[in-house]
Design brief:
Elements (H helix, E strand, L loop, with lengths): L6 H7 L5 H8 L2 H6 L6 H14 L14 H7 L19 H9 L10 H4 L11 H14 L19 H11 L2 H6 L3 H9 L5 H14 L9
Length: 220
Amino acid sequence: MPVLVTLAQITKLAPGARSGYCGAFSAGQEVLERFAIAESKLRVAHFIAQLMHESGALTREYENLNYSARRLVQVWPWRFKPHGPLDPEDYAHDARKLANEVYGGRMGNTAPQDGYLYRGRGLLQLTGKGNYAAATSRVGRCVPDCPDFAAQPDAVLAPEWCLAVAAGEWASRGCNELADADDLEQVTRRINGGTTGFVERQEWLRQAKLAWNLAPLVRF
């Protein structure tokens, strides 16, 4: 039997969830089953925990790039002075300029404004034109009439697509198998590229396990 994920469970974890995300989960059971997330409570708990962290408890659509100069040095120490070449004052509180600098020329971004255009969006903060194109392929295999997310990047926020985009990315990174091993660190590395926010992700996993009646033990 697939594990049921109800809107009531989601909004209990995230009472301030955006209406679009609520709409996605209200009709999301098929998506979770299609990408094999609903095969176990452990997969569901890990998936939901990562979504909750990445989306700010389902309140965030876009990546927040409104950084102070001091914070820029902390987040990208090898890009900004004193260790890097860039003056953080030139990028502070300028999301467009910052995104084009830190994301430009990688992750499939080639045009001058691609860094900002393909900044983090959605439940797992999909980032980079290459990943938007990959999302189109993954979702399109299941739903042939899905949008071209590289051509319409804001479509990854639509209630009918945001959960499928996140679930497809999750499955493609091997996170179902890592969740089976209850390996939060490796799941986080696959989703985040590092372990940023690991303590917060631990807490989300604890809460998600309780929501699906699992013992709140975490393998490090």
